[in-house]
Amino acid sequence: MAQTVDITPTTRHEGHAKLILEVDGEGIVSKAYYINTTPIRGFERMVVGRPAEFVPFAVMRICGICQTTHGIASCSAIEDAIGCEIPEDGRLLRELTGLGSRMHSHPIHHLLTLEDFVKPEEGDLKIEIIKLIQSMRKVGQLIVDTVGGEGIHPPNIVIGGMRTNISERAKAKLYYALRQFEKDAYRMYEIYQELIERFLEEVGIPDLGSHDYPYIASHTTYGDREAINWDGIVEIPPHRYYKDMKIAESTSLMIPLYEGVPAEGGPRARLVKFGNFRSGGGAMDINIARAKENLGAVYRALEILDELNINGKTRVTPEYRDGSGIGVHEAPRGMNTHFAEVGREGRIKSYRIIAASNWNFPVVEKAIEGYPHQYAEVIMRAFDM
Amino acid sequence: MDPLGSYKSIISARATDKRILKRCQDGGIVSAVFIYGLENNILDGVIVADKEEGFRPVPKVATTPEEVLEAAGTKYTVSPNLSVLKSAIREYACEKVGVVGTPCQILSLRKALKYPVGFRHMVDKVKLLVGIFCMENFPYMGMRIIVEELCGVRIEDVVKMDIGKGKFWVYTRWGEVKSVKLKKTHPYEQSSCHVCTDYTAELADISTGSVGSPDGWSTVIIRNERGEEIINKMIEEGYLERRPIDEGKFGLGLLKKLALVKKEKNMKEIEHRKELGLPVPPDVCH
Ligand SMILES: Cc1cc2nc3c(=O)[nH]c(=O)nc-3n(C[C@H](O)[C@H](O)[C@H](O)COP(=O)(O)OP(=O)(O)OC[C@H]3O[C@@H](n4cnc5c(N)ncnc54)[C@H](O)[C@@H]3O)c2cc1C
């Protein structure tokens, strides 16, 4: 007998949402709806008419974890709009701040998914993982603190570059912290690979949570507006995407499509596009990709420390003029895009944001369909919503 | 009313390093303590008031003895030293920070350390608070008027300013000395200083100023163990020379008298403002 299973709210993830599942007689999900219940806050409206400088600081408040990435995407959208080139050292420091954010966000997501894979009797293992997570997160926070100027809502990310450079001492401190992170990240990667392998074996569904949608990613460690065909991106209202009007009315999300279909963003998408990660596998692959990205992040961060000139200029004074621009940053959970139109006296004429998680909402639905309903949340969590 | 707040001991002292004595205001205590701290790994960054063109103070994170020397000497105008505290700990990655400040700045910093809202990861990294005595301060334009109009000296020509013996003194790079009676400078004071009742930076680890000691020497109030440890080591290792404080009328007597004058005078102003329903500072250091 077909039935409906509601999971409301869904737990152990970052946002607010619920799952509505239509389940067939065998317990398999035939139709999944993943409803975003975060209320609309109106940032895109709020910034219209405001001076551009205000916008990065405002939009950082969109998310409690992704402040850095919203700050970066916002600044680069406005810089693109007014034709402002930021100095190389400013760009490096920005990328480093973004990586710091990734390096504390990814581990926190390991914490949220942990319970899906570790067994109640494996107390010691759990403690080991939690200690790793704490130690890794400290490093990520230290980077954002030091380079961004503050761990939460980093104020050094400004239009024109970065407010200031870092000291020799700070650079050395980050180096040693990164070396520790590298060790921890390796261990974490090993653990996650084993845990996921065992989990899939026990479940007996190797491709749990697979889907046919394409991937979307612009860069591995930063963001590159040139890598995306922007004409191929549209956002449609849920009323056009969902046949069920009740569902359409209950979600607070616009649905982004790439070349006409939803697309998966995040660790796996990046590693498939720019590395040699397996494509088309089950959703659990994303958990492994995430653990792997910690390594990429730390290597790139070390490289940035090498490339950085701590006496270099980090900021230019922006000169405002009319124009529109795009800013892209690869947030931990996917591609984060801001579109800014700047008008008279450096004021915002229009503003649009496609935040990273928006992409994955419709993909999560597809990934859940065709699999036993009791795994719906495990699949959703793999996406870091 | 308790004039000086709580303390362990009071001495007269001065730095032994000639480089410090050449640039400092009084006995060079602040610069000597900071240089000692930096050279002996007790501090790895200190916040001082450097200056730009026109004797404009700029708060600075100094990490070398040279930078400390560069910023020695009193600026008789507001230098928002606490504004770079975060930078010291974030972008400079310092873990053992020393801060010099006027009594109001020391008070604010203590408060921030006690209630660290907006001060994440900072409390355990601020290691030493050095307070400087202060009767009043001047807004930048106030100071400039005293120098240029009352003393008739171009601000570019000034190498040092000082307050003592009832006068405001200006020293020029041409070797001239000009002065004006403090009575004439009162109108240019910062009005917020008139509701402050702390003369000797009562919440610092070490407080220092000129009053109470002979010219070229400083009065040093050692307030707690942290302050005591560092001053004792400095004396032992020859960074500072000391002499007993003069307990008489021109020594400790004068210091206590001036501290009480500030408290009593400004308590009156506070009462006056209360009568008018104006805001007054919370009850501290009475
Ligand atoms: C506004 C003001 C009023 C003062 N009033 C008195 C007084 O009434 N009686 C008295 O005995 N002493 C007073 N002093 C203190 C005195 O002038 C000396 O600063 C003090 O004795 C330290 O001298 P030093 O030789 O030990 O320090 P130095 O080695 O010369 O070092 C002084 C340190 O203080 C810092 N500094 C200078 N100006 C400021 C400022 N505006 N804000 C914060 N930090 C600063 C410098 O960067 C330097 O690090 C006052 C100081 C100020 C700033």
From TrEMBL, chain B:
What are the coiled-coil residue ranges?
A: none
Has UniProt tagged this entry with the keyword Protease? no
Recorded GO molecular functions are:
coenzyme F420 hydrogenase activity; flavin adenine dinucleotide binding; iron-sulfur cluster binding; nickel cation binding; oxidoreductase activity, acting on CH or CH2 groups, with an iron-sulfur protein as acceptor
**Sequence ranges assigned to domain Coenzyme F420 hydrogenase/dehydrogenase beta subunit C-terminal in this UniProt record:** 95-247
CC cofactor: FAD
Keyword hit for Metal-binding: yes
Q: Which UniProt keywords apply?
A: Iron, Iron-sulfur, Metal-binding, Oxidoreductase
Top-level lineage group: Archaea
Q: What is its EC number?
A: 1.12.98.1
Which residues does the UniProt record annotate as the domain Coenzyme F420 hydrogenase/dehydrogenase beta subunit N-terminal?
11-86
Family of this protein:
Belongs to the FrhB family.
This chain belongs to the protein called Coenzyme F420 hydrogenase subunit beta
From which organism does this entry originate?
Methanothermococcus okinawensis
